[in-house]
Amino acid sequence: MTLDDHAEDIASDLGVDKEEVKDDLKNLVNYSVPMDEAKQSLRRKYGDGSSGGGTPSSKPIAEVTPADSNVTVTARVLTVGQRSIQYQGDEQVIFEGELADDTGKISYTAWEDFGLEPGDTITAGNANVREWEGQPELNLGESTSIELADEPLDVPYDIGGDATLAELAPGDRGSNVEVQILEVEAKTIDGRNGETDILSGVLGDESGRLPFTDWQPHSEIEPGASVRLEDVFVREFRGAPSINVSEFSTVRPVDRTVEATQSAQQMAIGPAVESGGLFDVELTGNVLEVRDGSGLIERCPECGRVVQNDQCRSHGTVDAVDDLRTKAILDDGTGTVTVVLDDELTADVYGGTLEDAKEHARDEMDKEVVADQIARAIVGFEYVVRGSLSVDEYGANLDATSFIRREDDPKDRAQALISEGEP
Ligand SMILES: [Zn+2]
Known about the structure:
By secondary structure, this protein is an alpha+beta fold. It has helices at residues 3-14, 18-30, 35-45, 269-274, 343-350, 354-364, 368-378, 410-421, and strands at residues 57-58, 70-77, 81-87, 90-101, 104-110, 121-132, 135-140, 145-148, 175-191, 194-204, 209-214, 226-237, 240-245, 250-253, 265-266, 277-290, 295-299, 306-307, 311-312, 316-317, 321-331, 336-341, 382-392, 395-405.
């Protein structure tokens, strides 16, 4: 069964929107939750109607667990994000963010407009507890009472949702950022309500760069503009965080130029993979091996998939086109990723063009000679690789935009010494 089938399964059982379920499912699977467990958790989230009974008790946030069915908490509102979702076939506006007291913080979703503002101190009576990614989450709905407190509660967290791009993670809601628009493109997509105009591109600040989508094109979003975006939410797109600007977001020019960093965030491979995906990251490690499917390969002319014996999974027998690609395993002791080099980067490490590679393969009557030559050129050496990291059921892949051999490689020097010393 594909992810799509599993989502269909849950959505039809519970009568909820399939796309929402699919997004959630994809998220859980990306966090390496086994499929069965992920489905169970979503069945709980979308409610098999089992909210349980019992009188809600008042609890510090740190003590709220998914085992509680209903609780009463007194907390400070950290963030409020507004979003429109499809719920049981209808469009519904929800409010979501985080609440905190002095013991901890917790995510919430409000199904009604309680007029929550960041900084408010509230007592939420009879809030429903659900589990999300193994964590408890509060649902404020019809049966919940919200009371405003006069005295603000002191909490050890920032209030209001201001963040740098490097701090954002998929799932963040009600966030505010000050960024420069680096790239922007207008597109027409086939959306929920028919054809929709959207903007997509890349934005940056001093801490990093991220892709974004503006679902309700704002005229202030233009190339080079420095803007403050309020109430955006972060989703995962191709395994990396992506900023979503909605009809509820505000976009205002700022009277300074936000300097967007040119360099990528440098990370060790293990933590980078654990983060679940990064749009622009720099990893350094040793190439352990060159994987199958490298060198001279063939692609379907329709969809670009790699094919063998002219058979495409979607398009049957095709007149395949030749291409160059490298899939190399990079390791730094903390983890491994598969680095994918496109045709140009592959030509660089191979030391020849696609035509050279074809001639090489013809002369030797073996396609593998191309991959073999690439392996000889890069295996065992240390590389600094920049690109976009995605982590999914197929593993951790870094689509490289640059692949540079580390010149001051201590191992090179050691090897040079050893070979000099050899008889
Ligand atoms: Zn195809």
